[in-house]
Design brief:
Number of strands: 24
Strand content: 15-25%
Mean pLDDT: 95
Low-confidence stretches: none
Shape: globular
Structural class: alpha/beta
Number of helices: 15
Radius of gyration: 21 Å
Largest sheet: 7 strands, mixed
Length: 464
């Protein structure tokens, strides 16, 4: 019974799961927190990974391990392999002006055609432009650029020279200078972003390939971006849309064909199986619920009960949840706003309902954007910390307009990484099949009035 380990190095924490390579049965797990902020010293990720591994009982008996990680971040290394400056994370919006400039210079349609996505502040290319403009000395010292999961995989392999950096299609496709269609880096776009094209970029591995071995001899999988990892973890197939409510909100679909959305709503990423993962992401997801609990002075369970007590549509009360700016739509300086406050709607239950519905309306817009790109939507799978809310589960089919399948709560990014590790260990054309247990189906009649009211006020926000 060989064991495999999967790592989820997310924005907020590091999770490690150890599973049976053949059946996927969970054997043990561990976790450790990450520091808050949108700028983090990568050493904190390594410390958290070491702690999470220890909490999971170590990796001495593990045959293979793979790392799933938060996408897009910018990790710059010097010639000696030392970190040049703290990493800028995906949710750091200081490069919004750089993204706008890059889109103006090349054109949104040209970016979409080249790399599948129009540039937004999340992408690595925009952060490199910001670095070149605001910290030219750090840019000059940069000899290699990688992503969070690339760096952790490299560290697990005991580092080595910069040429031993490895990544995969899913994470590379979120940099802004890699084409998942051609399977090649676009160094001309790297030049446009950084002003140089001579930096080392990680070798892009096939999904089942090995990135080397750990110091204990375990095989290292290629790794993956977090959304691709979650998709692999829930066993998503073509026609499935995975809606994830975590730090970010995501609607992504496994597709046999790539997308190139010049509007910028849909990012044309790759998945972790050799297919594509068109994706819509929002900056505001589970923390909308966190903020509302603080505002109302209630627990998450109480918030859920309150939301289910209020009528559908909350009598016209709408929360547009742009609490940290927004990525989709691309409004990095936007602010959240409440519309329709009256003597009737000035109730905790109405605000709780508006928070849940506003969160789901943003994701429903994302599913519509996927459909507009020709993506088939047969099933919706709901995952992430926000899916633990009964109100979110019950209201999701009302707002999303589809029956919703909710797997039992789990660490699906780490599970996907573990499944990838098992794939690297076993080989073959497709990853091993692991049964997804405990899935519940939620069905309800859609209420188009909820989304119609949200659409009326969605654009009436402060900031752009």
């Amino acid at each position: 019974m060989p064991l495999v380990a999967g790592v989820d190095s997310s924005t907020q924490s590091c999770k490690v799961v150890v599973r049976d390579a053949e059946t996927g049965a969970l054997v043990r797990s561990g976790s450790a927190p990450h520091p808050e902020g949108t700028e983090v010293d990568p050493a904190a990720w390594w410390t958290a990974l070491s702690s999470a591994v220890e909490a999971a009982g170590g990796l001495a008996d593990v045959a293979a391990v793979s790392v799933g990680g938060q996408q897009h971040g910018m990790v710059c290394l010097d010639e000696a392999g030392e970190v040049v400056r703290p990493a800028l994370l995906w949710n750091d919006t200081r490069s919004a002006a750089a993204a706008a400039a890059l889109n103006t210079e090349l054109g949104a349609a040209a970016w979409a055609e080249a790399v599948g996505s129009v540039q937004v502040a999340s992408f690595t290319a925009t952060k490199l432009r910001w670095l070149a403009e605001h910290e030219p000395e750090a840019a000059a010292r940069t000899a290699a650029v990688c992503l969070p999961h690339d760096w952790l995989t490299w560290k697990l392999a005991d580092g080595g020279d910069l040429g031993s950096l490895r990544t995969d299609r899913s994470d590379a496709s979120g940099t802004g200078y890699y084409s998942a269609v051609t399977g090649e880096y676009r160094r001309d776009l790297l030049m446009r972003a950084l002003g140089r094209d001579d930096v080392v970029l990680p070798e892009v591995l096939e999904p089942s390939a090995s990135a080397g071995r750990t110091s204990t001899g375990a095989l290292l999988g290629a790794g993956c971006g977090d959304n691709a990892g979650a998709s692999l973890g829930v066993g998503a197939r073509p026609g499935d849309v995975v809606v994830s409510i975590g730090t970010s909100g995501v609607a992504c679909a496994v597709s046999e064909t790539p997308t190139a959305d010049a509007s910028g709503a849909v990012a044309g990423f790759a998945d972790a199986t050799g297919r594509y993962l068109p994706l819509v992401a929002t900056l505001n997801a589970a923390r909308v619920l966190d903020a509302t609990t603080r505002l109302l002075g209630v627990s998450h369970e109480q918030l859920s009960r309150l939301a289910l007590e209020a009528p559908s549509g909350a009598d016209g009360l709408v929360l547009v949840p742009y609490l940290e700016g927004e990525r989709t739509p691309d409004r990095p300086s936007a602010r959240g706003v409440i519309h329709g406050l009256t003597l009737t709607t000035a109730e905790p239950a109405h605000l709780a309902r508006a928070a849940v519905e506003g969160l789901l309306c943003g994701l429903a817009d994302g599913i519509d954007a996927l459909k507009a790109q020709g993506v088939a939507v047969d099933r919706v799978l709901l995952v992430g910390g926000g899916a633990r809310s009964e109100a979110v589960r019950r209201l999701a089919p009302v707002v999303l307009g589809h029956p919703v399948l909710v797997p039992e709560p789990g660490e699906y990014v780490a599970d996907g990484a573990a499944r990838q590790a098992a794939w690297a260990l076993a080989g073959g054309a497709e990853p091993p099949t692991w049964e997804l247990a405990g899935t519940e189906t939620y069905e309800a009649d859609p209420d188009p009035a909820v989304r119609a009211r949200y659409a009326e006020v969605r654009d009436l926000t402060e900031g752009t």
